[in-house]
Specification:
The chain is of the alpha/beta class and about 550 residues long. The protein folds into four domains: about 1-135, Response regulator (Rossmann fold), CATH 3.40.50.2300; about 145-315, Nucleotide cyclase, GGDEF domain (Alpha-Beta Plaits, 2-Layer Sandwich), CATH 3.30.70; about 320-440, no CATH class; about 450-553, Orthogonal Bundle (Arc Repressor Mutant, subunit A), CATH 1.10.10. The protein is built from 24 helices and ten strands. It has helices spanning about 10-20, 25, 35-45, 65-75, 90-95, 110-125, 145-155, 190-200, 205-215, 250-270, 285-300, 330-340, 345-360, 365-380, 390-395, 405-410, 420-445, 455-460, 470-475, 480-490, 495-510, 520-525, 530-540, 545-550; strands at about 1-5, 30-35, 50-55, 80-85, 100-105, 180-190, 220-230, 235-240, 275, 310-315. The strands form two sheets. The protein has a five-stranded parallel sheet with strand order 2-1-3-4-5, sandwiched between helices. Strands 7-8-6-9-10 form a five-stranded mixed sheet. α13 (about 345-360) packs antiparallel against α17 (about 420-445). The longest helix is centred in the C-terminal third of the chain and has 24 residues, at about 420-445. The protein is globular, with a radius of gyration of 27 Å. About 35% of the residues are buried. This is Chemotaxis protein CheY. InterPro entries: CheY-like_superfamily, Homeodomain-like_sf, HptR, HTH_AraC, HTH_AraC-typ_CS, Sig_transdc_resp-reg_receiver, Tscrpt_reg_AraC-type_HTH.
């Protein structure tokens, strides 16, 4: 029998867990309770506890502090985290602390017992020899999900050998006759923007949240396993397995799960997705060709028809593919003009090319990726000085269709590779060109003093974006310290102070419009969290936004 400790300051939640937990069938003898992390640590010293369920928001010692406290003292203690979708800071610590599961409030009976079952399975496996094969359903220290991910990846890329790996097939249900398999692929169109604005730049945190949403939206008749593709940074894959009995409904179930997941990702995080749903198959090795077809459908997405909303491809589209447009000669001319100081002509050429593409029958997503990668590659090649024009390399992430040399030249950077419609795609290309031209002009300017008002003008115009001093340092090839000192000498504010001032001045102006909600104003100012905006406003003006609005009346 195992012992469980529930740590939560809300008695109704502790009581709900006690009621819905299937304690007897799980082999759990005693269930202890504590109202905060400090009391929880005291109970750990007094009783042999195997699993701890800990809420993240508590008085005295919260969930983060508790997880950090037990990491070294109780390294084998299993933990299940309880919290909400927006507690991303807590989620980061949960990942670092290798928790068994992460439950979202309100607690669901099925999810609770699944998490407890996972913990009990780990405890049971520890009683056995660690040398026993994983096919016997040993899930030790969260290694099973990673192994399943590697298995699925080897199937998708065609390297899986059935005869040599037959013992692993039970792990993914491929040994059961009658099982059917399907694949869902998500291309995150605004991945970097969401990562920076909603997940504080944490890629692992965002990946965890996305796969968690997919798990929450899975149909109970489908067993779905989701993971970010390790070699394609904007791609998330979900492999779905259906037991015999519902074969005729599997295409519909896959489409419903995909639609629900896409809707939830947009509602929770503002994600815009191009999704593809594969045709069900009876042999799991057929997933390789299905996966290839699904990616082809996603790559065929017409960028000209993107409107900032997600798209879903359920079946192959029939008809002739659009005739490809050759842009190589045009890009070479753009590179030459930009390099020789003909900035306006380079911009006109790029604009003309974008207009030509827009007037065509279609412009596929894979072609958009390829052209962005090629332009970036040419601009990088034109930089003659070692280390020059770093801002260009930081402005675009690696496109999936880029060549080896292009991939080598592309650094993972900010949101400039995001685009959710054709207009935004054009803006990204123009921004890339402008950054390169700015580098050329600065290099040609020699020792001329830098005009710090350029940074002020940028802040005045783009105050709602995530403004970083490193962006200006890379764009103008000057040190952070020099820029900060120069800006303060000129305007009497630090750069971050000035950004705050512009936002707060704008906040006052917007609060004067009674038709705007506080949340809307927060979004317009670049604060993705209304509570954070309210706290910033109060710190700046000593009154909350609501109190200030009342004072105006």
């Amino acid at each position: 029998m195992y012992n469980v400790l529930i740590i939560d300051d809300e008695e109704p939640l502790r009581e709900a867990i006690r009621i819905v937990g299937d304690w007897n069938n799980l082999g759990i003898g005693q269930v202890f309770e504590a109202t905060n992390g400090r009391l929880g640590l005291e109970l750990l010293e007094r009783y042999p506890i195997d699993v701890v369920m800990v809420d993240m928001k508590m008085p005295e010692l919260n969930g983060i502090e508790f997880l950090r406290a037990i990491e070294k003292v109780y390294p084998n203690l299993l933990t299940i985290v309880i919290s909400g979708y927006d507690d991303f800071e807590f989620t980061r610590q949960a990942i670092q602390s290798r928790v068994v599961d992460y439950l979202l409030k309100p607690i669901n009976r099925q999810e609770l017992n699944q998490a407890l079952r996972k913990a009990v399975d780990i405890l049971e496996s520890r009683k056995q020899s660690e040398s026993k094969f994983i096919s016997q359903n040993i899930t030790l220290n969260m290694s099973l999900p990673k192994l399943k991910e590697k298995l699925y990846l080897s199937i998708l890329d065609g390297s899986f050998k059935r005869q040599a790996n037959a013992a692993l097939l039970p792990l993914i249900g491929a040994d059961q006759p009658g099982n059917r398999f399907g694949v869902i692929v998500l291309r995150l169109l605004n991945r970097d923007e969401v990562r920076m604005t909603r997940f504080h730049g944490e890629t692992d945190l965002m990946d965890f949240a996305v796969t968690n949403v997919l798990a929450q939206t899975s149909d109970e008749r489908l067993s779905c396993f989701s993971f970010p593709h390790p070699r394609r940074e904007r791609e998330v894959v979900s492999i779905c397995t259906l037991s015999p009995g519902q074969e005729q409904h599997m295409p519909l179930l896959l489409a419903q799960v995909t639609q629900k997941a896409v809707t939830n990702l947009h509602g929770l995080f503002g994600m815009v997705v191009a999704a593809g749903v594969g045709k069900p198959c009876t042999d799991i090795l057929e997933l390789a060709s299905v996966y290839t077809d699904v990616k082809a459908h996603i790559h065929s997405t017409d960028v000209l028809k993107l409107t900032g909303t997600s798209v879903i491809h359920v079946a192959p589209r029939q008809g002739m593919m659009p005739e490809e447009v050759s842009w190589t000669d045009r890009l070479l001319l753009i590179q030459k003009d930009a390099q020789t100081g003909q900035a306006n002509r380079a911009k006109v050429l790029l604009n003309d090319l974008l207009k030509q593409l827009a007037s065509g029958p279609a412009f596929r997503l894979q072609d958009a990726d390829r052209m962005m990668g090629e332009l970036h590659f040419l601009l990088r090649e034109a930089a003659t000085e070692p280390g020059a024009f770093l801002s260009v390399s930081a402005s675009v992430s690696e496109p999936e269709g880029a060549s080896g040399e292009q991939r080598k030249s592309v650094a993972e950077g900010d949101i400039a590779a995001d685009f959710t419609d054709y207009a935004q795609y054009g803006q990204r290309l123009h921004r890339m060109l402008e950054l390169y031209i700015a580098g050329v002009q600065h290099a040609q300017g020699g020792s001329q003093p830098f005009d710090i008002t350029e940074i002020k003008r940028h802040i005045d115009r783009y105050y709602f974006e995530d403004i970083k001093i490193s962006f200006f340092a890379e764009t103008y090839f000057l040190s952070r310290e020099y820029l900060m000192k120069l800006f303060k000498q000129q305007f009497g504010y630090g750069i971050h102070e000035y950004v705050q001032k512009v936002r707060m001045d704008k906040a006052k102006e917007l609060l004067g419009d009674s038709s705007l909600k506080i949340q809307e104003i927060s979004d317009m100012l670049g604060y993705k969290d209304k509570n954070y905006f309210s706290k910033a406003f109060r710190n700046y003006y000593q009154v909350s936004p609501s109190e200030y609005r009342v004072s105006l009346q």
